[in-house]
Amino acid sequence: LEDHGTSREEERKARVPLAIGLKSKRQKRVLVTGGAGFVGSHLVDRLIERGDNVIVIDNYFTGRKENVIHHIGNPNFELIRHDVVEPILLEVDQIYHLACPASPVHYKFNPVKTIKTNVVGTLNMLGLAKRVGARFLLTSTSEVYGDPLQHPQAETYWGNVNPIGVRSCYDEGKRVAETLAMDYHRGAGIEVRIARIFNTYGPRMCLDDGRVVSNFVAQALRKDPLTVYGDGKQTRSFQFVSDLVEGLMRLMEGEHVGPFNLGNPGEFTMLELAQVVQETIDPNAKIEFRPNTEDDPHMRKPDISKAKELLGWQPTVSLREGLPRMVTDFRVRLFGDTKSNAD
Ligand code: NAD
Ligand code: UDP
Ligand code: UDP
After folding, report:
1. Which ligand is in closest contact with the Cα of 230?
2. From what superkingdom does this record's organism come (predicted)?
């Protein structure tokens, strides 16, 4: 076994000078799976801005061409309609693997498809990374901690996850995806990076994706009551999308595998969030209580000490600063302006 490992390592090292030589002469080729989605499209903007050659693959389940339409025609950008559950042959240097519905409403819509995306889709992208020697970054989730018994959650916590619940297709799916990434790393020497993302919001979120920030903002703008599920005392931490993208890029470029929590440690109850939305949009917005969904985690807040120390990263945009930027985008999209991709 040791011999096997050593020869693989040698093989990998032997490839490095060639790769560096090539990279210095040409642009980085970066694959973003799920790049037409909310987070993916903001990441694509930054990569294009940096001068990379970007390929997006997306099946448009929750993503939209509109999110990346401003890059169409740019020779450094390519958009491919493809489902990651099917194999694909591409030549790239880095893979940001985001393809997977993120909103509970979307991932519960077809749970078996969600599992396939997380397991088979991730396997295919790791197989691709192995074939071409690309670095692979997995966007995992704070949901791997389940309904956590440790608060705040550090990366060392193994989680409290229901394996047979309605959220399992997503949280167990992401746990398997992390396992696959680590097994390809250990077994095949693939350079992997794992991010555990906490609730993120910002422009280009689907208007009706059922997540709490997009729901509250759309409801307040439409003069509908804000729907608070349960007693509204459950907590979440909300990160603005530009902070996340910065964290993902630092993680990809850095030397550490992770996993790393990427989230904003500010913690809010859903009632407090409703209050911030009222202050930002409409102080007269009403609140309506609804029964909570099954298996809803009671609290969630990242411990980001590891990302601070090893990636030199921490969020810079507070909820009160970030929310108005999202409101501007939602207003434009809800009330029919043409500048629908402004951020
Ligand atoms: P999103 O739904 O906006 O984006 C996901 C994208 O993946 C969409 O464009 C969708 O069409 C595409 N997709 C889904 N299944 C696919 C498949 N089988 N093949 C190809 N494309 C597929 O969600 P997002 O918020 O941008 O999330 C991006 C990633 O970050 C996801 O992997 C998600 O699990 C993770 N994440 C997000 C959050 C958050 O709060 N936004 C939190 C934790 C983890
Ligand atoms: N794969 C892919 N693109 C590639 C290389 C592999 O989609 O460029 C897929 C491949 O079809 C397989 C998966 O990735 O289903 C895992 O590939 P790997 O080579 O690791 O395993 P194997 O094919 O030996 O099962
Ligand atoms: N939630 C809410 N009202 C809504 C949507 C969600 O009170 O209209 C609550 C939900 O019960 C959960 C929290 O907001 O406690 C965050 O839910 P979301 O779906 O945004 O993401 P999650 O963190 O559960 O993945």
Report:
1. 3
2. Eukaryota
pLDDT (0 to 100) of residue 25? 54
Does the pLDDT of residue 218 top 80, yes or no? yes
Which pLDDT score, from 0 to 100, does residue 10 have?
Answer: 54
Q: Which of 337, 98, 27 is nearest to 241 (CA)?
A: 98
- Of all protein residues, the one whose alpha carbon is nearest to atom 17 of ligand 2 is 127
Q: What share of the chain is helix, strand, coil (3-state, %, to 5)?
A: 45, 15, 40
ipTM reported for the complex, 2 dp = 0.97
Contacts for 136 with CB less than 8 Å, ≥ 6 apart: 94, 95, 97, 125, 126, 129, 181, 184, 190, 191, 192, 193
CB 139 within 8 A of CB 245: no
More confident residue, 276 or 341: 276
State the distance from the centre of ligand 3 to the C-alpha of 296, rounded, in angstroms.
8
Which residue CA neighbors atom 21 of ligand 1 most closely? 58
> Cα of 165 to ligand 1 centre, how many Å?
20
Residue 67's pLDDT is 97
CA 188 to ligand 3 centroid distance, Å: 38
- How high is the pLDDT of residue 12? 53
Average pLDDT, the chain: 92
